[in-house]
Amino acid sequence: MSDGRRPEQVAQQPCRRVVLGVSGGIAAYKACELLRRFSESGHDVTVVPTAAALEFVGAPTWAALSGKPVSTDVWTDVHAVPHVQIGQHADVVVVAPATADLLAKAAHGLADDLLTNTLLTARCPVVFAPAMHTEMWEHPATQANVATLRQRGAVVIEPAEGRLTGADTGKGRLPDPVEIFELVLGVLDRGAPPQDLTGRKVVVSAGGTREYLDPVRFLGNRSSGLQGYALARAAASRGAHVTLLSANVALPDPAGVSVVRVETTEQLREAVVTATATADAVVMAAAPADFRPTSVSDAKIKKADDGSAPAIELEQNPDILAEISHDRARAGTVVVGFAAETGDATGSVLELGRSKLARKGCDLLVVNDVTGGAVFGSTDNEAVILGADGAVVDVPRGTKIALAHVIWDEVSRRFAE
Length: 417
Ligand code: CTP
What we know:
The protein has helices at 28-40, 53-56, 59-66, 82-88, 100-108, 114-121, 134-138, 140-151, 177-190, 226-237, 265-276, 320-326, 349-360, 400-416, and strands at 17-22, 44-49, 92-98, 126-130, 155-156, 160-163, 169-173, 201-207, 211-212, 218-219, 241-247, 257-262, 281-284, 291-293, 314-316, 334-341, 364-369, 380-387, 392-399.
């Protein structure tokens, strides 16, 4: 898989009826990848392109990839009433890419082709993944249409930033198909996400920091960043402004999230302290290296002829979570930490978690049992969330995005209090 995960690492879902609407933008070709992901994970996909979409990717491609004929109008197979049936029987409708024109039609309830008819007959969750030029996205007409659709309960994903059709760059790219796929799986599981983090600024750290010995070697750890990225995606889908502090993670940027890249624990510390000053919540999902070499060689360290190995002297890195928990820059910021524990002679996983919660001084601690390294690189996770207020929330085994939503539920409850 292009996100680097083996097929067995992708959680299997029951077969659901997915309608993939494709409107006429250059990003239509990326919807082929999205379609493959749905069909390869066992879902029944019906593709409904607009006539303009077929200018970019032809009907044979959609038919071959979905195993079903495709049509754009309401005059084909009229006896089967497709303009009503397709929407009525869908478990989810996802439109990717959604052009400015398609968003406008959907917001105003126009129904002049099969896709717009389907959008009016669907009673299931509807997800739009817009893609267009920055000017078109930012135009008040488009923004008003997006607001109308969101207010009616549709999920409209924020476009990604980057290279657009020509040489220009800006906001308006279709998010990575993996991002859209994962978001839609979440919507199938739990319905459209609540918008309880709207207007909130949240900071999430993800990945594992590296401490360099020389220009080519470093001390690192096994954190993949999947849980932190899931937290960032979940918060963005609930309306938050998200800053993701990413330490050495090889995953696509989550849509609608500002990503700041760091390498070392000291760089992460600086970025966390700066972002926390104005944040409503901070989640430290990263695994910062606890130790760093006391000195970093400017040149590559060479092997000695006598077969001896260099002694590496280490010093402790700052504890970022303890620092931001104890010196609260802003009253009311909810601080969340993670504890990866294996349990040892001094205590069980939960006992060690409880004493870590007290030591770090955060509001919530998500305790993972990492005995045997089971969590690293997996899309699944299970945890117990401990609150400084005595709360204990058991999260059974499920996807990392499902755990992310339970964590945001707990944060959101504390905002409300
Ligand atoms: N953490 C941090 N700064 C560090 C080390 C850890 O902010 N230098 C944060 C992690 O992001 C996580 C939490 O502290 O949210 C717990 O991390 P963990 O590795 O379990 O704890 P440690 O403090 O390293 O404690 P120990 O390894 O001794 O159990």
